[in-house]
Amino acid sequence: MACVIITNIFKRNSFKKLGHFWYARSLSVAATRLKHDREWKAVIGIEIHAQIYSKSKLFSGSGTEYAYPVNNQVGLFDAAIPGTLPVINKRCVEAAVMTALALNCSVNKVSKFDRKHYFYADLPAGYQITQQRQPIATDGYCRCIVYNPAVPKYREPRELSVRIIQLQLEQDSGKSLHDEENGYTLVDLNRAGVGLMEIVTAPDMCDGEEAASLIKELQLIFKTIGTCNARMDEGSLRVDANISVHRPGEPLGVRTEVKNLNSVRFVAKAIDYEISRQIELLEDGGKVENETKAFDFKTGRTVSMRDKEMKQDYRFMPEPNLPPLRIYDSSDAVSHLDAHQVINVDDIRASIPTLPAAKRTHLVDVCGLPWADAIKLSSEVNLMEYFEGILRDAPHRLPKTAATILLKHVLRCVYKAKCSIADCNLAPQRVGEICDLIDTSKITWDIGAKLVDMVFEGETLNPAAIVEKNKWHKITDNEVILRLCQTAIDENPKAVRKYKEGKKRYFSTLIHHVQNKTEQCTDSFVVMDTLKQLVLCEYSKVTQES
Amino acid sequence: MVGNVFQVAQKLRNGSLIPSEVCSWCIRRSQLAKRLNVFITELPDYAQQLAEKSDERIALGKPLGLLDGIPIAVKDNYCTAGIKTSCASSMLENFYSPYNATVVQKVLDAGASVVGKTNMDEFAMGSGSLDSIYGPVRNPWSRVYARKRQMLTAVTSSAGVAIQQAQSGHGVSLSASQRIPDNYDDSYKSFSMEEDDWLIAGGSSGGSAVAVASGSCFGALSSDTGGSTRVPASYCGVVGYKPTYGLVSRHGLIPLVNSLDTPSMFTRCTDDAAAILATISGIDVMDSTTVQDCSVPFSLPDDASIEGLHIGIPEEYHAPGLSEETLDTWTWVADLFERAGAKVTRVSLPHTQYSIVCYSVLCVCEVASNMARYDGIEYGYRSEQALSTHALYADSRHTGFNDVVRGRILAGNYFLLKRNYDAYFVQAQKVRQLITADFRRAFDAGVDVLLTPTTLTVAPPYKEATQHDNRTMSAQEDVFTQPANMAGLPAVSVPVKLSSQSLPIGLQLMANNFEDKLLLTTAKWLEQQVQFNRLDLVEDSLGLGELVH
Fold first, then answer.
1. Highest averaged pLDDT of the listed ranges A1-5, A247-251, A493-497
2. pLDDT at res. B493
C-alpha cells in the first residue's frame, strides 16, 4: 500500500509543488498505516498448578491442611526416608479426572508417572514425581467470558475459548524460608507431596484481561466441582504465564515466563506490563531474552529470577515404583477387579454438577437475564447458590426479579455489613417472598429494597406482614396518583419552571416529592409518566394562553 | 546345629529344644565367625529377648508359625525400626530408620529372632561384598580352601594322578567334614586381616550368605538386583532364592534399582526358602508393584517326580570364562535330570549377550535417581560445608558415598541427559524387552525350568578379585544371574558339589513368572539328588548337632 502511493507521487511529478506536498504527506500516512497494519500482537499461554482438594497427599497418607504447624504433616515418604514407596491416592486421581472432564479433555485410559530431577532443599527426594510423557488427560478447552465493565475495551461481554493442551498429576514441593540475615534456609515439608494438577493451555490469549478471565473461570469450575479450593492467596492455585509478542504473519517471538502469580489481578497486571516491556524493548532495537521472571506487586514490574537462570536438564526417567495408572469406563470389563480400586470415568462424568458456563447460558437463554447479571451471578459459587436458593421450590418466581433484588439490594447490604454472601443471615427464601410481593404488584421496587434492608437488619416479621403493618401496599389507583402528581406540580412551581426551561434534572424533584409523600408506595415509572403528562398538558395550556 | 527350619521347628514343638537355646547357639556361632565380618550390627540381646518371648509362646503351645523362635539375619539395606540401617555406607552410618521394612515386620510378626544386620557392598553396588565401609566379607570356605590347596600341593609333589581325579569333577565327593577334620572354628581364629589368602563371599549380600553358611542363623533376608543373592549363595554353598518380582514387598528395602530389586533369601535348604517365602510374600499396600498370587504360600513335596519335566539348557550360557569344573557340573546335573525322566533340551536365549550391558545402563540410571535423596538435609551424613545449599550437597555426597556409588551416579546422570536419554536409557529398555521375550519364548515352547551355572567359577581369592575394579567384576559375576532380574523371573542357586579345591559349585534354576513352587520343587529334587555336603557345623549335645568350643 505504502509503495503504491509513493509510485503515484512520482507519476505526478509534473505538479511539482503539489507533488512535493503530496510526497511529504503520503510518507507520514504510509508510516502510520505501516504501524497500524503491522501492530504488535501478544501471545499468552498459561500454566496452572492447582492443589487437589483432598484430605491426604498424592502418594502418602499425611494431611494437607493449609497453615498447619510447621513440619507436622510430613509422612515418611514425604521426607524421602529411604525405602519408602509412593502409593497413589484414589481421591486425587478422581479429582484430576473430574477436572479434566470439566475442561472437555480426553482422559487417557493409561497414564504414567515420571521423575523430574533437580536439587532443592524443599524437594527431599531430589526429584518430583510428575507425568511428563503420558499425562492423565489431554486436548481440552475452556470457554470463559472476557468482561470488565470498568474498562471500555471489555465492556461488552465476549466469549473466549482457550485450548487445554494437557492436565497432569504431580507432587507439590515443600517450602523454603530464606533467612538472608543469618544465612539460613528453613524448610517446611508440610506441603511436600500434596497433589497438584498442572494444567497447560495453548497460547490462545492476547492480553492480561483475557488471561485473568480464564483464571477466574477455572477458579469457578474448580470450586463448583470441589477439586481445588482455588485460593490464590494461599497458594492452592498458582499461575505461571508465558508471554511473547510478534507481528502478525511473523513467527512467534521469544517468550518470557512470569512465575508464581498469586492473584487474578496480578496475572493481568504482570502480563500487561510484560507485553509493553517487550514491545518497547523490540521497538528500541533490543532483543527479548528467554528468561524466568517474577512479578513485584509493589512496583508493578516483572523482575528476573537470577537464581533460576541456569539451564536445567531435568533428566526425566519413568517412575519405576508406580505401575501405569489405568482408568476404566463402563464399556471396560472390570468385573475381576475390586470396585473400590477402579476409577470409572463414566461414573465421574455423571457426578459432575452443572458447570458455570452452562449455568450462565441457562440464566440468559431460559431465565432471560442480561449477560451482565448472568456473569455477575456465576462469578461466585456462593452467589449462584444463593440465587438458586431464592428460586428453589417456587416455580412461579421470576428469575429476573430475584437477580435484581439479589445483585442490587442484598449485595448492597452484604457489602455494607462487610460480610460475605456465604455467611449472610438473610435466608434466600425470605428474599424470595419479597420478590413475590414485587412480582404480584403488591409492593413497589423501592419498598422491596426497604424490606431487604429490614430483614437483613434482623426484622423477624415476614415481608408480607411488614407490608401489612406499615400499610406499604403499592398504590394502584390512578385517580390517587393523578392527585398526588398534581399536588407535586402545584407545590413545586420552581422545579416545574426549571424543567420547562430544559433543565431535565428538576423533574426528579417532582418524582421524589410524590414518592416521599407515599413512602415509596407508588411505582416511580407510573409517577413519572403521570407527571410528564401533567406537565406537558400544563405546558401546552401555558403556550396556548400566551 | 545341623538341621533346617523344619527340623528345628519340630524339636521346638516337641520340647526337645527351646528357642532361647537355639538363639544362644546361633549367637555363639556368630561370635566365632566374627572374623568373617558378617555383621554390621550384631543384636545378641535383642535376639535373645525375642527368643524368650518365643519360649513363652511355645511353652503355651501357641507358636506364631513355623518361624517362631528361628534366628534370622537381615541385610543392612532393610529398614529396621530403631536399629541402624547403614547400607554399609558413610552416608547412612548415622541412620536409624523410624520404621520396619514390610519383610522385617513380617518375620518379626512370625516370631523369628533377628540376630543382626549383615554386611554388604555399599548400597548393594557390587558383587563381591568387598566395598563396604565396614570392610570385606570373607568366605567361610576360605580355610577349607587353604587346607585343600596345601594338601593338593603335597599330593602334586607325590602323585599327579590325584589332581587329575580331583579336577575331573565327576565322582569327587569331597566333603569338608570328611576331609578336613580340623576344628572348623579354629580356622576363623587363625585368620588375620593382613592375610589376603582368603576367598571372597560374593555380593552384594555376602554378609547374609555367610551368616547362613556359618550357622549364625537359619535364614537370612537379602536382596537381589542382578545376582546379589545367587552369586554369594553359589560361592558360599547355601541356597539363594530370588522370588518372582512383585511377590515380596520392597517397602523398606533401600533401593538399588527399583525395577530389578527383589527381596530374596539365603537358607540351608529349599524347604526353608519356601517357608520364608510363605512368611514374607503377599500383596502390600505400601508397595504398588506387589501382586496377589494365590499359589503362595506353598510347601514342597518330599517325593516330587520330575518325570516329563522340561528342562531347558540355554546355549548362550556357555560363556567365555566358564570354568571347566562348573561346565562339567552343569552337564552332570543335566544328565541327572535326563536320567530321572525329565526332558532336557537346548534352548536359545539370543539376547543374553546384551543383557549385562543393558543392565549396566538401567542400573546406573535408577541409581542416579535413587541416590538423589541423600543430601544430608533430612537424614544421613551432613557435611560441615555451609557456604551454600549446593555446596553442602556436593560435599556431603562427595564424602558420604564411595567411588563406586559416585561413579554410578555420574554415569546414570549422563545417560539420563535429554540428549542421551534415547540412545542409552530407551535403548536399554528395548533390549530389556527383548531379553524378556527370549525367556517368554522358551517358556511358551514348553520349557518348565532353565538350568544354568550361577557363576563362572568357584569363589575367587581376594587377591585375584581385587585385581579388577567393581564394574568389571560385577559384569563378570552377574553374567548368568541378571537376565532373570530383567525378566522378573524367580531363580534359585542350589549348591551342587564341591570343586577339586573343595569349594562349592552352585547351579541356577529359573522358571517362568509366578512358577516359584515349580522352581523350588525342582530345586528340592536336585538338592535330594546331589546331597551337597554343607560346611559342617558339627553335632551338638542337644541331639541336632554339637557345639564346638
1. A247-251
2. 98
> How confident is the model at residue B549, as a pLDDT?
25
What is the CATH classification number for the domain harbouring A534? Answer: 1.10.10
Chain B: closest CA distance from residue A93 (Å): 15
3-state percent breakdown (helix, strand, coil) of chain A, nearest 5: 45, 20, 40
List helix spans (H) across A392-458. 399-404, 411-416, 428-439, 445-457
Which residue range forms the structural domain that includes residue A31?
2-37
CB proximity list for B158: less than 8 A, separation 6 or greater? none
Whether residue A278 is contained in a domain is answered as no
Residues 6+ positions from A545 with CB-CB distance below 8 Å: none
Predicted local distance difference test score (pLDDT) of residue A219: 96
Structural domain ending residue among the three candidates A189, A213, A247: A247
Give the mutation candidate from B92, B254, B377, B419 for the A interface (greatest A CB count, under 10 A).
B377
- The total domain count for chain A is 4
A321 lies within 8 A of chain B by CB: yes
Band of residue A30 on the pLDDT scale cut at 50, 70, 90: very low
> How much is the pLDDT for A178?
86
Report the domain count for chain B: 1
* pLDDT for residue A511: 84
Give A126's contacts in chain B (Cβ within 8 Å).
369, 371-373, 375
In a domain, A375, yes or no: yes
pLDDT band at A542 (very low <50, low <70, confident <90, very high): low
- Answer yes or no: do A149 and A236 share one domain: yes
| More confident position, B371 or A3 | B371
Q: Provide the grid cell at B89.
A: 555406607
> Which amino acid type is present at position A454?
M
Residue B308 has pLDDT above 70, yes or no: yes
Q: Do A125 and B289 touch (CB under 8 A)?
A: no
Query: Is the separation of the CB atoms in A348 and A101 below 8 Å?
Result: yes
Instruction: Compute the distance between CA of residue A481 and CA of residue A525 in angstroms, rounded to an integer.
Output: 12
Residue of B nearest to A318 (CA): B366
The answer, for B416 touching chain A at a CB cutoff of 8 Å, is: yes
Quick check: B393 contacting A, CB < 8 Å? yes
Of A76, A125, A183, the CB nearest to B372: A125
Phi-psi region of B22 (alpha: psi -120 to 50; beta: other; left: phi over 0): alpha
- Number of CB pairs < 8 Å for A and B? 107
- Rounded to an integer, the average pLDDT of A228-257 is 94
A60 and A168, same structural domain?
yes
Mean per-residue pLDDT, B3-29: 91
User: Cα separation of B71 and B538, whole Å?
Assistant: 18
Beta strands in B11-125 (DSSP E): 39-42, 71-75, 113-118
